[in-house]
Write a structure and sequence with these properties.
alpha+beta, SH3 type barrels, four-stranded antiparallel beta sheet, three-stranded antiparallel beta sheet, 2 helices, 15% helix, 24% strand, rod-shaped
């Protein structure tokens, strides 16, 4: 058994040493056969130039000029401005009713030229208001008090996000027998 192991070790060393020897020489380059027919008129590429052409590779460069960005989506979504319609929560008794339900009963002028108006709700209760007072359930504000009327502006945002201004003129009611001059 000892002789068998010595034989295997010796055979392995012999194979290992022969495997580490010099590489076999490459076969000589053979020029391609000359083409026959119409292609024969062209000059064949020399073998040395063909090897050089194979070694030199043209590097690829990406030119994004005039091309679409590959990381952008196909569909362009426009961001809409987010405008929420204003919801007015009634804070005063006059804001519980629509502006059309309120009646202008009287106008009082002070010594300083400041005007006050008396507005009556549908229940018959009266309220003294001035310029800037909130009136109506749509966020109206009294902007001007004149001798015969009070002007209320209601600002609202529609579904398209545009702000609309509605001007409501509350005029004094004349008694039945009185005629406008």
């Amino acid at each position: 058994m000892r002789s068998l192991t010595v034989f295997l070790i010796t055979a392995g060393l012999a194979l290992g040493l022969t495997a580490c020897g010099p590489e076999p020489a490459a076969p000589p380059a053979v020029a391609p056969a000359a083409p026959q027919g119409p292609a024969a008129k062209k000059d064949p590429v020399p073998v040395a130039d063909a090897a050089r052409v194979a070694v030199v590779k043209e590097a690829f460069t990406y030119e994004p000029k005039g091309l679409r960005d590959p990381f952008q989506p196909f569909i362009k979504l426009e961001e809409k401005k987010k405008v929420r319609p204003q919801v007015f929560v009634p804070k005063t008794p006059l804001q519980r009713y629509a502006t059309e339900e309120l009646h202008l009963v009287g106008i009082i002028w002070g010594d300083s030229g400041r005007a006050r108006a008396l507005i009556e709700d549908p229940e018959g209760k009266g309220y003294v208001v001035g310029t800037g007072t909130l009136v109506g359930d749509r966020g109206g504000r009294i902007v001007r008090i004149q001798p015969e009327e009070a002007v209320v502006e209601e600002r609202a945002v529609d579904l398209f996000g545009e702000e609309n201004v509605n001007v409501v003129r509350m005029t004094l009611r004349k008694p039945e027998g009185e005629v406008n001059p």
